[in-house]
Amino acid sequence: MDILVFNSGSSSLKYLLYRWEEKTVIAKGIVERVTMDNSFIVHEIMGAETLKIEKDCPTHREAVDLIMKVMTGSEPIVIQDTSQIKAVGHRVVHGGEKFSKSVIIDDHALKTFKELSALAPLHNPPNITGIEAAKQVLPGIPHMAVMDTAWHQTMAEHAYIYALPYEWYREHSIRKYGFHGTSFLYVAKRASVLLNKDPFETNLIIAHIGNGVSFNAVKNGVSVDTSMGFTPLEGAVMGTRSGDHDAAIDLYMMETSGITAKEMNAILNKKSGLLGITGKYIDRRDIDKAANSGDKQSALAIEIEAYRGKKYIGSYLAALGHTDALIFTAGVGEMSSTIRGKMFRGCEELGILMDEEKNSISRTRNAETVISDQGSRIKVFVIPTDEELVMVEDTVALLEGKYDIHTNFTYSFQDPLYVNKLREEAFKKELEENPELSSVKAPVPGR
After folding, report:
1. Fewer beta carbons under 10 A from the terminal one: N or C of the chain?
2. pLDDT in tens, 225-251
């Protein structure tokens, strides 16, 4: 049984094809520049050369068509025809308060996603466009939605209500929602495995650090607080988003500089964060390189991001009380020893002891590593996230009528014997070039 998952952006369409019986990824890729000129597909097949084909895709419908044609007609052929695909899973960024778990997409669900678009104008519309395009190209099979916000529906009122006029919440649904939920779910379940604990007796702080950044406090296996809010703008310093700041600044600049609300929204989301501080960089690798070459604004950007992250870690330690582990995930969290080190160096009084050498060595997206000192009361893990696997498993469970909210559902990756075969093979190759990585790989109890 083959399961296809889509992550649709405004000008891109990511996809992954998973063969359920073999528990392995068959193909994955992305169509870039959808709705623009010079669009193209990058198609990766396990064990084969990466394929790139240029093909105009004026809408997401053409992008889905292109993906299907490449899968069925380019060598090596991935599937004989689309009838092999038994269900399609879709990422939906914002499910509001309407959805606490993944759902089969029927007319009512699609209508609700459209109604929620005002809460996520940069995300939900392209998600919906991708769903509608896929349903046109692949009719007659179930389509499922996996919501980033669903994981955070366990937060208490005191954690998600803002100190604003309460009628704004009643009449306009203004509240903290949180994002990156699919990533947090995967990482939280894997952390409980590494700790050899019941997931619902596990307290964690998870730092998802990519271009977008958010922190999550997990108490007894469920989300109790998170840094992103009504939109993904709130919280930590990010690649292009400002994160927390005095809202009066926005009003002041709008009044004194004549900036419109639309322009301010673009500045806060697309021209602030690390890009705003450095003036030219988003990628942490570029910022690191520039900082090491004497660029003071790049060095400042690193310090600001790390300092703000450390404050979130400290505040969540206070909110949780007992904490079992701190976890770093996503691209920067998995690969940047600089950002990780600065965020939890100096937290000895809080029970977190860093092993400087292990932190320096741990640079892989193919293995779970431990970077805390042996004497650390709170473990520090680096766990590569796998949002696509969560989407696949939710889709299959919905298809088979076995799915429920994560507190009543067990994922395959919660099993200590679970192995990601592709990552395991890739890690073996990494070890050939860097044998030191074996010293940081986290032991899995029971395996």
Report:
1. C
2. 999 999 889 999 999 999 999 999 999
How many DSSP H helices and E strands does the chain contain?
A: 16, 14
Mean pLDDT of the 57-61 span:
87
Q: Is the pLDDT of residue 60 over 80?
A: yes
CATH number of the CATH domain containing 278: 3.30.420.40
Distances in Å between the Cα of 293 and the Cα atoms of 288, 290, 297, 298, 336 are: 9, 5, 11, 10, 18
Cα–Cα dist 342/126, whole Å: 36
The answer on pLDDT for 9 being more than 90 is no
Q: Among residues 2, 65, 148, 250, which one is catalytic?
A: 148
Q: Is 345 within a domain?
A: yes
Give residue 45's region: left, alpha or beta (phi > 0; psi -120 to 50): beta
Q: Any bridge partners for residue 27, and if so which?
A: 17, 45
Secondary structure of 294-330 in HEC code, one letter for each residue: CCHHHHHHHHHHHHHHHHHHHHHHHHHCCCCEEEEEH
**Phi (first) and psi of residue 116, to 5 degrees:** -85, 0
Q: 313, 343 in Cβ contact below 8 A?
A: yes
H-only helix segments in 15-106: 60-73
Type and span of the H or E element at 100 = none
343, 362, 382 - which closes a domain? 382
> 2 catalytic, yes or no?
no
pLDDT at 221: 97
- Whether residues 242 and 124 share a domain: the answer is no
> CA-based diameter of the chain, in Å?
63
- pTM for the whole thing? 0.92
Q: Are residues 208 and 79 in the same domain?
A: no
Percentage of residues of the chain with pLDDT beyond 90: 67
Residue with tokens 């790139």: 52
* Parent domain of 80: 2-147
On whether both 310 and 215 belong to a single domain, the answer is yes
Instruction: Give residue 297's pLDDT.
Output: 97
Give pLDDT, residue 300: 97
What φ, ψ does residue 5 adopt, rounded to 5°? -125, 140
